Amino acid sequence: QSFQKKKQITESEKSEDFKKKLQKKSSSDETNGDQNSKNVNLLSALNAPSSIVEIKEQQVNKTSEVIIFNENEVELGFKHKKNVKEYVKAIIDKQIRIEIVASIPKNNLKESDFKKKQKSRLLYIRTFLINQGISHNRIGIKFNEVKDSKKWENEVVLNFIGL
Fold this sequence. Notes:
This protein is an alpha+beta fold. The model has no long low-confidence stretch (mean pLDDT 73). The N and C termini lie far apart (82 Å). It is 45% helix and 21% strand. Helix 5 links the parallel strand 2 and strand 3. The protein folds into two domains: 24-58; 59-162, CATH 3.30.1330.60. The protein has a four-stranded mixed beta sheet with strand order 1-4-2-3, covered by helices on one side. The chain has five helices and four strands; from the N terminus they run H-H-H-E-H-E-H-E-E.
């Protein structure tokens, strides 16, 4: 008997009187709701502290320091170290990224030896900057391929890029 009672209860619950009726929304209400949500999203994006508008307004300041090495020299000289230390003191607490750029020839038979020399120069400057207190995340290393000229051979460029 209890089984039959349960069956009767479930059948009565399924009747249309107990079903919830969904309200139909008009199409004009939906478009207004979509526009309101878009406006709210736009306002919240513009009021956010790191919005796209603020990024466009930032200007990049870039200064360069050129270090010229002797023919077989790999490490920094005393004068170069002094100049780099002055730059480091000036930028250590600011949001400035350092890019170390060396030039390598495009077509040269001695390219591998020269590239090793330039790479060791770059890495030496990088370790010097890290020892001075600059974070390794702020230092980038790049190689530029250059056509034949005499100026680029023993030069390394330090670019200080600030936001």
